[in-house]
């Protein structure tokens, strides 16, 4: 039986080249043998007789060494066997483990080598390396500098650098360190920004953007929104981390003389949205009291929300009737409010092109300019004339508005955190939203 | 220079390759597979011409490597069948049966050994090891091609080297996938390689920028625009978030505001990334960014210096909204289904379990979160500081411990149908790739504001496993958690994180300043104080007060 | 050795060898060994005189160094696993 199988196998062996490749053919040629090892690195091979298919082989593998299928000579047993079976087994296992591990590591190393070799062969390495400069260095960029008083770029570390930047809102160039306060006003978020906004609207209206009129319903909404507005300085919940002083108040010059009154139509705010990115505007307030200018911007705005505010030509005072006062037209009310807003800033000789139509120099507004502007208005002077009269003195720091809205966007995840305390309890800055 | 998004996609041609060392990883929805990485370094290219106008689709399959002429000839004659067969049975065994056959047959015909580097002849049935036997067979029989069994690579004796053919490789990949699945192993990770188009582009533009240990690439100063240090610090942290950096440098962003690209905050952030990694040394002004964020997050607007944490959350929110487009469905309600990069990186799931004390019924909810705000605990009047947390781990313990809701806060238990007392416990259900911790140092009660400056130590490496939901729940239920189940699965449940950014607040509530420490290229730390960037060491970082801590997952898994 | 043969065969049959390979690969990636070796390879290629180095050349040059770079912790972990398997299966054999 044995010999028949052997012959059969030998026959198959020789006929290989003509046989179709198949797994069975492979398996036919494998033989079972004992393996002798000559060194500590165990050679692990197993072969088995396969008579037909692998079942025999599997069976064979599981059998004890004393089966009749074993061939070859007696295996040379390692000398450690003489010490005793258990110790020998442990050593064997250790040796085997070490060998297996070495093989695995070599295999891993070869794997990496294949990867790199392939990348190189396919040209990816060259692509990745790219251009080599004179030093053979690939990296662009400069070496890091580590030296006292120097930053990593080798530049001397000066705290306050003079830089300029452009405001995306109004496209003006200004000093970088002044940018944030500027932007705040520019975007209509500061305390005085609403005036600026209305001024812009006035500009745009003059240029034919006849949007936005009136008023009738706005009075109600004004008042409602008015409740949100609280006076600047009293919003304590905002974390104040800067010591920025409110120079604005200091720079306001009280006008000697009559309490000029301004009248700006609240309806003007309906048209504010056209040119201002922010939809929230504050309604300026006018107080008929003589010392109107001495009022804080916030107070002015609040007052203008409640009264007509048109400057009487006779008395020079503000009309204190209701917002629907029949004596004055909406146009007048609007004008006054526009002008009032413009008191926050003074426009220098800016080109009032279409881009800048609502552009007001948010930084250089002085309250002291209000008088001249007001007078120009009440004389029915043109807008341009009015601006010419305004002084172009130093930028006012109408800053430190503690105005920031507590309105969180609905998609904010602020409320979804685990034990997060309420940090965002800041007061609103959205004052008097006028909507058509 | 302002470039439109289309142009930018050509001008920002980034590859996610790693310079010098480190493995590759890409974003989940672009690649399949598992790869573990400790660090990543980016190589990206910035072509100097903006010639390609339209965004080129990156075709992954456009690789036509043909090996050598001998292999080509073989392929045309024999095709793939033999190759597949060999692979399925001897290289990556696709079944138990195959493994048995491999165990049986993979022995050198001559020396009867299993190695070293056993090869199979591709022309006939012959196993030969590399110590001369396969070579001898090839020479004798003029069978020029053989296959390395352990790695499945084709050796061409005529070329005397291994050759690579993409068709065969694809076959090999398929079979390996099957094999892995059969064994319960994770997917085989396939590294990114440039497609044909990408290769052309890269050859055309050979200049490369790398983040190395001694290059300033990746570092830029940021000018303070008037108490905007809070914004500067957050931007530094974001631009050094590895996964986010990869996303933007590989130009993955498609703007949703096609008609108003200037409105898109994500485009602006992408532009910032380009600036940061351009190698330029000039400090940047974030005027446009500030304008955009104030436009889209009105509640933040206002000149006065703001809280960095608030700014961080608002920024993520706007980015998230802009990633998904202006018309995101339902806004927040779909947030857990959103697949934008912000959600992929930053969103985790916080599990809240409320256990009714009478019936032990558990009511579980899972809320998404972008960061964890940790209470620092007040020092009791007695001066007993034993219970006050002193480390980040202490804070996390406090955060995830069960809290007995007192009798004044009874909840309606659905099974008891009555109001009962309960315990509530928060645990991490799903951790984001970037875990941000916010130490609540600023107290805002109605009476006073103050800053808690107590020292909280935080580690460089963090293992979040003890705070995960399954762990805590098991701990509560039975004392001896079956740790072995976790150990057996090294591929999943890997919750190791590494610190990469720390934002500190210096000063008092009224007058203070934010600075940031960021990590780059393995273990280089830098201090970012507005426009002054200096080298720092890890000790300084770990000794700093710590207000916002950013940890990045060390090992990423892909589907 | 017969036992070794049997054990090896068992390793392959059960797929345990594949699992060890994968685990080793994982650990070596985690600890940065793969990156180091890759770097060694690339250095070897750049320094090599030939335009393209063959796998054999790379293997001869890089693998000895690579062996030394493997961290002990990884070795111990794998060794433990291997020994456990071998012991379990040897016990079974003798039963």
TrEMBL record, chain A:
Keywords, ordered alphabetically: Activator, Chromatin regulator, Metal-binding, Nucleus, Signal, Transcription, Transcription regulation, Zinc, Zinc-finger
Residue ranges of domain SCA7 in the record: 295-362
InterPro entries, per the entry: SAGA_su_Sgf11, SCA7_dom, SGF11
Zn finger spans (SGF11-type): 165-186
Xref: Pfam families: SCA7, Sgf11
Function: Component of the transcription regulatory histone acetylation (HAT) complex SAGA, a multiprotein complex that activates transcription by remodeling chromatin and mediating histone acetylation and deubiquitination. Within the SAGA complex, participates in a subcomplex that specifically deubiquitinates histone H2B. The SAGA complex is recruited to specific gene promoters by activators, where it is required for transcription.
UniProt-recorded name of the protein: SAGA-associated factor 11 homolog
Automatic annotation (TrEMBL), chain B:
Catalysed transformations (reactions): Thiol-dependent hydrolysis of ester, thioester, amide, peptide and isopeptide bonds formed by the C-terminal Gly of ubiquitin (a 76-residue protein attached to proteins as an intracellular targeting signal)
Domain UBP-type: from-to ranges: 66-182
Enzyme class of the recorded protein, top EC level: hydrolase
Matching Pfam families: UCH, zf-UBP
Keywords recorded for this protein, A-Z: Hydrolase, Metal-binding, Nucleus, Protease, Thiol protease, Transcription, Transcription regulation, Ubl conjugation pathway, Zinc, Zinc-finger
Annotated compartments: Nucleus
GO biological process, one term: protein deubiquitination
Superkingdom of origin: Eukaryota
GO MF annotation terms: cysteine-type deubiquitinase activity; zinc ion binding
Protein's UniProt name: Ubiquitin carboxyl-terminal hydrolase
Organism for this UniProt entry: Cloeon dipterum
Lineage of the organism: Eukaryota, Metazoa, Ecdysozoa, Arthropoda, Hexapoda
Automatic annotation (TrEMBL), chain C:
Gene Ontology molecular function: any one: transcription coactivator activity
GO biological process, one term: transcription elongation by RNA polymerase II
The protein, known as: Enhancer of yellow 2 transcription factor
Keywords, alphabetical: Activator, Chromatin regulator, mRNA transport, Nucleus, Protein transport, Transcription, Transcription regulation, Translocation, Transport
One cellular component (GO) term of this entry: nuclear pore
Family to which the UniProt record says this protein belongs: Belongs to the ENY2 family.
Gene that this polypeptide is encoded by: e(y)2
Provenance organism: Cloeon dipterum
Function, in words: Involved in mRNA export coupled transcription activation by association with both the TREX-2 and the SAGA complexes. The transcription regulatory histone acetylation (HAT) complex SAGA is a multiprotein complex that activates transcription by remodeling chromatin and mediating histone acetylation and deubiquitination. Within the SAGA complex, participates to a subcomplex that specifically deubiquitinates histones. The SAGA complex is recruited to specific gene promoters by activators, where it is required for transcription.
